[in-house]
Amino acid sequence: MGAFFNNIKGYHFLKSSLKPLKRRYFNQQINLIPENNILFFGDPRGGTTWMGETLSQLFKLPILWEPMLPRKDSRFKNFNFASRQYLPENLNDKAINQAFSDLFTGKGIDDWEIQHTTVKMLKQSQAAVIKFTRGTMLLPYITENFKFNKKPIYMLRHPMAVVASQLKHVGWRDAKPYFEIPNVPFNEVYVKHSDFLNTLKTKEEILIAKWALTNKVVLDHPKHQKHWIFITYEETLLNPKETLQKVLAGWDCAEVNLDHIDFSKKSRTSSSLEKIGKEQQLSQWRNSFSVEQILKMQAVLDYFEIDIYNSADSL
Known about the structure:
Layout: H1 2-28, E1 38-41, H2 49-59, E2 63-65, H3 94-105, H4 119-124, E3 129-132, H5 139-145, E4 153-156, H6 159-168, H7 188-191, H8 194-197, H9 203-219, E5 229-232, H10 233-238, H11 240-250, H12 278-283, H13 291-303
Parallel strand pairs: 1-3, 1-4, 2-3, 4-5
Helix pairs in contact: 6-9, 9-13
């Protein structure tokens, strides 16, 4: 019996030892050309998946999934980054720059990042769709320090719809009713608002503050809509073909044939199978909150001076 358990232990030890070797061998076969990648930024539960999948289908590219999510196998794990990290665009840090270079060339890829593609597709490709839903504050840094043939895409969704979706998702089951300023490098974007953030007492206020902090960096940037293409979830849902054409025109790819794209198909992360109208889908988040909750969330948006979604849209 002892020999049996020793064999079992030996098997698991061997398996864990082989994992780094397997990963290293796999990564040696990946050769992405950085400037050919398509970068796509948005919020978690922000409706980015359909567009990401469509671009993957259209250009026959694999998808690299959420590279900034903190995890043990991440190429960024040694930098103590927050789940939504900010980096100054003029940052001169060779190690951080190299980590992003590794991402854009396909080095250090782990199981998490390839969950929506195939190993075969990645090995055969020289570019990928890299989808960030925790990297929006990095957009100015990335576009200042790396060049891409196709401008990155930045998608925005109504913040209260984002929060409603997050609160229904298992990933936010343990969301806290207070704001924790992350103890990370370059956390000044959080610290300067600490007095206000400490006044927030509900989960929905905290989540909408995170949305506001994340997107304010990009919305207020002088290169907004110059160094990246800006679209909204709402226009994508209501007019998917026209929104995709807008993206393609921004890349000078207006001649791309869209006849084989199914514009009625739901994304694989869609949480609802209900067949309801698109306008109703856009307003469905209101059923998740009371008037008092909506007013408190609106007060957070007002503090951060974010008015891209009119106050009337919230009531």
